[in-house]
Specification:
The protein is α+β, with helices and mostly antiparallel strands and about 230 residues long. It is about 30% helix and about 25% strand. The chain has a six-stranded mixed beta barrel.
Length: about 230
């Protein structure tokens, strides 16, 4: 106790040194906490999907080493013609404007192919998830699935949210479901607030033409390996 009292008196006599010491400790603790949190999300926390060990990323590696990304036409060909995956899905992040009453805010949306939730084996907490037939016609099905956090933080956990209409980029989308708590997709660092069928891209990204562009490499593609197929074989 005497040593602690002496140290405390010395710190009071040297406020400049005390401030630097406290700031250094705060920065060190904060940096370590932030790094561990990121490592915990990326490396230690398992994917919240059915049999995550069978989920793999699919894409080309270019001359500059970057990848993996595919164009939508190339993804569609691989999805329909491969013999090693039980399902192959595509995703693309896009910032969108969510409007509620007179309040607008920017959120993260994830455009997904219609088989996204089925391949991952994820069921909705409320309502249902996007069906493959809802991603077959361009602008044919303006539906949206909310993340659990988005439902809680922006809609107050309204149990009657399914069937309601929300505005994304000024366009009306019908809420068909709420994702289970803890599901962030498989891109663990950036969590989407909403999931939307990929065929709704012209509303989510106005002016975009990448759905028809074979040389537009902007989709992350993943798949579920068939039973008995190894990544090397795939």
């Amino acid at each position: 106790m005497n040593d602690l009292g002496f140290a405390f008196r010395q710190l009071l006599k040297n406020p400049g040194f005390t401030a630097v010491a406290v700031l250094t400790l705060a920065l060190g603790i904060g940096a370590n906490t932030g790094i561990f949190s990121l490592i915990n999300i990326v490396l230690f926390r398992p994917l919240p999907v059915t049999e995550p060990e069978r989920i793999v990323s699919v894409g080309p590696i270019g001359k500059n080493g970057l990848g993996p990304a595919l164009s939508y036409p190339n993804y569609r060909d691989l999805r329909d013609c491969n013999a090693v995956f039980s399902g192959l899905f595509a995703t693309r992040y896009a910032p969108v404007s969510l409007s509620r009453g007179h309040h607008n805010e920017r959120i993260w949306g994830l455009l997904v192919s219609g088989n996204y939730f089925d391949v991952l084996g994820v069921q909705a907490l409320l309502g249902r998830t996007i069906r493959p037939d809802e991603d077959g016609t361009r602008l044919g099905h303006p539906v949206v699935v909310l993340s659990h956090d988005c439902w809680q933080n922006r809609f107050g956990g309204d149990s009657a949210i399914v069937g309601q209409t929300v505005l994304l980029n000024g366009n009306s989308f019908t809420v068909i479901g709420v994702a289970p708590k803890g599901f962030r997709g498989i891109e663990l660092v950036l969590a989407p607030d909403v999931w939307v069928p990929m065929m709704m891209a012209p509303w989510i990204e106005p002016g975009s033409t990448w759905l028809d562009a074979r040389d537009s490499y902007n989709l992350l593609v993943s798949g579920r390996l068939k039973w008995g197929v190894t990544p090397n074989q795939a």
